[in-house]
Amino acid sequence: xxxxxxxxxxxxxxxxxxxxxxxxxxxxxxxxxxxxxxxxxxxxxxxxxxxxxxxxxxxxxxxxxxxxxxxxxxxxxxxxxxxxxxxxxxxxxxxxxxxxxxxxxxxxxxxxxxxxxxxxxxxxxxxxxxxxxxxxxxxxxxxxxxxxxxxxxxxxxxxxxxxxxxxxxxxxxxxxxxxxxxxxx
Length: 185
Known about the structure:
By secondary structure, the protein is an alpha+beta fold. It has a domain at 76-183: CATH 2.40.50.140. It has helices at 33-61, 86-95, 97-104, 150-154, and strands at 3-5, 12-14, 82-83, 108-120, 126-131, 141-145, 161-172, 174-183. The strands form two sheets. A five-stranded mixed beta barrel has the order 4-5-6-8-7. A two-stranded antiparallel ribbon has the order 1-2. The longest helix has 29 residues, at 33-61.
């Protein structure tokens, strides 16, 4: 049993006491390290979840009812892609997000890597995470695809090599790339 000072009168009070025996003031309970860690990691998990949701919703926001881009009839980026080694892209974003954004954000890139996950976010948008193949790699490239690419995405397996073309949106836990399409290696 540990003792703490009463905030009202300064008397020594047991930590398990409900109130100070001298003045009756409630004893402030100290938060356990476990509770603090739970709060911190819970907050981080919520931010990641919200980031994925917002990212998926943002990709859907520019689409009409037909599922194609509202700004053009074709969802493929029109400009010539900048060929980027996936190791370079991930290393740049891991090292300095601001510098990497100035080099890659808004740019259409062409890269290839190893498939880690093929999933849908809560807005039902298809995405594939691609990396170098290292275990527990952070960040990875998170590529969002239109429904027209669902068959190709469904055919992928973890560990498969894949080529990707799309527009870099920036870093949100992963390097987010939108309007993606699969390309032959």
